[in-house]
Amino acid sequence: MSSEELPAPEIKLTDAQWRERLTPMEFAVLREAGTERPFTGEYTDTTSEGIYECRACGTELFRSSEKFSSHCGWPSFFDPANSDAVILRTDSSLGMRRVEVLCRTCHSHLGHVFEGEGYPTPTDQRYCINSICLRLKPAQ
């Protein structure tokens, strides 16, 4: 899907406004499609129960019940909490074809989704998400 075909974000801020809300590293990943170094994110190995929200806008994206250990260096989920919470679009950067995962509410970059890797999950998908894009709201 090309960027022209994306639905309009519910939250639309200027780069200056995003920079006020986010740290420089959060801005680099969420707004400029960067990637945090593997095995450095706070949620890579977290097994706490709760809801993972978009760090930029607070939208519920994933639940701990969909998180699994992929040993890839980033938090991995086999499905979004609500399939409408994310947008998937083709990413041809870095000389390869991947599928980028964006927050539907604010269009922030979250990571990429991969299929057919053989993980024992219900969807055979791995949503490889940067920790810095998430905020865990612990279960009550």
UniProtKB/TrEMBL annotation:
Instruction: Extract the PROSITE patterns matched here.
Output: MSRB
Question: A Gene Ontology MF term for this entry?
Answer: peptide-methionine (R)-S-oxide reductase activity
The chain's coiled-coil residues are none
Q: Which GO terms describe its biological process?
A: protein repair; response to oxidative stress
What's in the keyword line of the UniProt record? Answer: Metal-binding, Oxidoreductase, Zinc
Q: Which GO terms describe its cellular component?
A: cytoplasm
Reaction it catalyzes: L-methionyl-[protein] + [thioredoxin]-disulfide + H2O = L-methionyl-(R)-S-oxide-[protein] + [thioredoxin]-dithiol
What Pfam families does the record tag this protein with? SelR
Q: What is its EC number?
A: 1.8.4.12
Q: Decide whether keyword Oxidoreductase is in the record.
A: yes
PANTHER family per the record? METHIONINE SULFOXIDE REDUCTASE (PTHR10173), METHIONINE-R-SULFOXIDE REDUCTASE B1 (PTHR10173:SF52)
Name listed for the protein in its UniProt record: peptide-methionine (R)-S-oxide reductase
- What species is this protein from? Hoyosella rhizosphaerae
Q: What is the lineage of its organism?
A: Bacteria, Bacillati, Actinomycetota, Actinomycetes, Mycobacteriales
> What is the primary gene name for this protein?
msrB
